[in-house]
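Run log, item B.
One chain of 465 residues. Sequence copied directly from the ordering sheet:
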Amino acid sequence: MGRYQFDLITIGAGSGGIAASRRAAAHGARVAICEAGRVGGTCVLRGCVPKKLLVYGAQVREEIDDAVGFGWSIAGARCDLAALISNKDQEIARLSRLYERLLHDAGVEIVRGHARLLDPHTVEVAGRCIQGEYILLATGSSPTRPAIPGIEHVISSDEALDLQTLPRHLVIVGGGYIAAEFASIFRGLGAEVTVVLRGNLLLRGLDQDLRSHLQKAMEQRGVRFLCDTVVCSIEREPDGRLSLLTNAGEILEADVVLYATGRAPHTAGMGLQEVGVRLTPRGGVLVDAWSRSSVENIYAVGDCSDRTNLTPVAIAQGRAVADSLFSGTPRVFDPTAVPTAVFSLPPLASVGLSEESARARHRAVDVYLSSFRPLKHALSGRDEHTLMKLVVDGETDRVLGCHMVGADAPEIIQGLAVALSCGATKAQLDATVGIHPTAAEEFLTMRQKRPPHSPGGAERGDGSG
C-alpha cells in the first residue's frame, strides 16, 4: 500500500469515521480524516449527547414534583433555559476537543475543509489533493423538511438544541425518535406541546404495545397528539406567532414549529456518482454486507449508507471495515439483535423482534407482558405504570425480543441485549435470580403467557421496583 500518501482517507469526523480511523491507525495504517466543521459529528454535536443533556434537564421537573411525597418542599423552582443551553454547549465543546486529541494521539491527520472525490483514490479538500488506497465515507445525515408553503419558518432539531428562551407553545411535526424526545424535553421544561402525527401512533416500526403505552404516558404528562393529520401550509402572523393549516381545515397556532420528519444521507456535492459510487433513491451510499460501495476501494458506514442509523451501529460498522482492511482478519458487522432506545419521558428501549415481526417470521410465538406501578410512585403519587414485554419463540423457547417503557429502560435493556446475543431462552431467564426490589427483576418473573390476539398485559401492581 505504498503507492498512495495514505492507506485510508475517511470523509467525516463523526462517530463512525472516528472509530474507523482510530482502529485503522491502531493496525498500523496511515490515516487522514477530512472534516469541514467541528470534530464529533451528529451524535456529539447535534444529536445523542446534547439531546440527552436536555432530557436530564427536563427530568428535574419530575423529580421536583415527586419530591413532595418524600418529605421535601421545593418552592419557586424554575429552569433558566439559556443557562442550560450554555452548560450543554460547554460540555459539547469539551467532547469535541477530546475527540480531536484522540485522533491526534492515534496518529490520524485531521484535514480541514469540505471533501470532494476527484477519482476513486483522490480527494480534494480546501484546494489540497490527497490520495488514499481506500476511501471511507462517514458523512452522516441532515434533517429534511417537506416542500410546503411557509416551511422556511420552521426549525429542525439542530436549532431546537440552541433555543435561548422557552416557547409558550411548541408544535412538533413528526412521529419518530426525535419528535418523541423533543416533545418530552420541552413539555418537561414547561412548554405547551402539540405533536402532529401523519398516523395514529408514535414510533412506527417498534412494538405496538410499547408505542401505545408511551403515547398514553406522554399524554398524561400533558403532551397533545393530533393523529392522522398533515400540515398543509404555515404562515407567520403579524405578532410573530406561526399559524398552521391542517388537512382537516384546523388552524394551529404556535410560537415555534419543529419539523422532525426524518433525515436524509449527507452525500450531495461530494462527486460520488461522478466516480461511480451508486446511491439509493434516498441518496444513501449503496453498500454490501462489508460496507463496500459499487467502487471496490470505497466504503461507507453510518447514516450516509442509510441502513440502521444508530451511533453504536456506525461505530461497529467502521471498526469492522478497519479490521477487514488492515488487520488480516476480515469480518462483517452483524446487524441482528441491535438494541435501541428512545430517550423520551418516560424512556423506551427495545432489543430483538417486536411481537408483530416475530409472528411474521415464526410459526409459534409466546408473549409475556407486565404493567405495574413502580415502587417509587407509591410515595410520589405519580399515576404512571412501567410496561415490560418478552417475545419468545414458542418452539425453541429462545427469547426473540425484550421491550420496556419506564424509568431506566435503556440501562435495563442494555443488559438483556447481551442475553439475546448469547441466545438466551425463557427458561434461562426464569432460572436467573433477580435483585429485589427493582423493576428489572420483572423480566425474570413473568410466567403467564398472554392469550393470542389479546391486547394489553397483566397488571402486577405490587409496587416492586
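Observations after the first pass:
- The two ends are 57 Å apart (CA to CA).
- The chain is about 30% helix and 25% strand.
Flagged for discussion on Thursday.
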